[in-house]
Amino acid sequence: MEIAELQKVASQVRRDIVRQVHACQSGHPGGSLGCTDLLVGLYFDQMTLKSDESGNKIFDMNGTGEDLFFLSNGHISPVFYSVLARSGYFPVAELATFRKLNSRLQGHPTTHEHLEGIRIASGSLGQGMSVAIGAAQAKKLNGDNSLVFVLMGDGEQNEGQVWEAAMYAPHHKVDNLVAVIDYNGQQIDGPTEKVMNNRDLGAKYEAFGWKVITMNGNDMADVVAVLNQARELSGNGQPIMILMTTEMGAGVDFMMGSHKWHGVAPNNEQLEAALAQLPETLGDY
Amino acid sequence: MKKYTFTEKKDTRSGFGAGMQVLGQKNPNVVALCADLIGSLKLDAFIKENPERFFQTGIAEANMIGIAAGLTIGGKIPFATTFANFGTGRVYDQIRQSVAYSNKNVKIACSHAGLTLGEDGATHQILEDLGLMKMLPGMTVINPCDYNQTKAATIAVAEFEGPVYLRFGRPVIPVFTDPDQEFIIGKAVMMNEGTDVSIFATGHLVWEAIQAGEILAEQGINAEIINIHTIKPLDSEAILASVKKTGCAVSAEEHQMNGGLGDSIAQLLIQEHYVPLEYVAVNDSFGESGTPAQLMEKYGLNAASIVEKALKAIARKNA
Fold first, then answer.
1. CATH number, domain containing residue B235
2. What's A39's domain CATH number?
3. N or C terminus of chain A: which is more exposed, having fewer CB within 10 Å?
4. Interface with B, mutate which of A147, A164, A171, A208 (most B CBs under 10 A)
């Protein structure tokens, strides 16, 4: 897909994010907006996914012969749900049920409600990369050459399990795995450098044996270029880590530059102000 | 009292290893993971015959549980193995979110459960694992009684779709069940039909219950002994049928009293058919170093304790 077309999708996804969070007055808009370009780039351009003749996605849990994506930082579910719906996994209208009683769109993603596109529950942090590694190794056992992507937060790097997985993947040469860290420098209690300094994550992953590359996660052209680069680098005996610089709240000026909008919903006026900055390109749900 | 004999003693973990070897040969989707305890888990044969289907995780159990969950996405049937302490309590949240809530077909297979781990002491002697695992919605919890039953259970859980906790242990104990037994998950096994008291035992306590039954028989007491190898789902039908006949019961397990088999039975009896129930279990205590036999005696997890509790249950029934 052309970059301009991807940017149009991203604008609609950002509208969906703020509208979902506004409707239930809860959820996590900041990280969702920051990671929008990556998820749009993956699902609308990069990933090989199974579809039927009318363009609707075909979902089966095993995902044999197609690329897989795992969201480890499950709190940015609004962007995941919007991208899944917009790419044809389930009806876009279902976004209106986000975080409401009896919804398949739980606060954090889950397989429990059988929502198409979700393969693991996430929310309790630090677990997604391990799951992605297992899925990648299953692909190798199955002779399946497609890739496995996983997104984590930079605050999530505080979790010990991440480093167990970081050690394991190069040791076992899981080179069909592309991990992405949302390097927005923010976590709930403030800037990561104040809460728990990650220092040089790139040097850490390189020391563990990863191939580390960087991405401007809010520049669609760079997102696509770096995802292409990651695919070319795969299959060479090393897992690939993308350090993706993003701005929390990207696309909505008053939500940017702070951790304040990590888990806060906009009120009616703020919703209107946000939507005014985000062209409706695909039609609101 | 039905007579049980044995010609050899073996550890239940070796039954697991033997079951894994069979699975390696007959089911190409079965894979194994281990957190630096291959020898203790008796995985050598499986690994030798299926090196590409074994994943060494190092001493990193949280990652092991996550990888196991991921391997199911792609159709694998992973057995995640380590000591029971590290495979349950240490990684409870990983099991809760990535396995149980996500309903992944992961088999968490753990050795060295309970006091019979022995000399290593309380840090390793988990007595809370059955409770932790049974509280998770959708989790099947199995604690077989000897080598043959552990082997049969291992093969059976691979055929079953859904998360399972399979618990076994380190000590060598009598092999007294049929080597060709059919293992039906959730179906209790009648070891001895009786009329005076029901003894519901699991794991290493089943053999102790049989010995207790013999002692009780010498005193003219006819004990019904039932092997509850599946803690969850509990075989309510078998338990209720038994207590309706005997009118009192004893539960026996190598586990804390809080949250174990006895509590599952108590819940059932309170709701469906009240009879006196006595517990043979560890009473709100950690273990300690010692030989398995010394520990089982000190903490009251042997035939003598079962006899004592059976007599108490009968006295309460008759009071």
1. 3.40.50.920
2. 3.40.50.970
3. N
4. A164
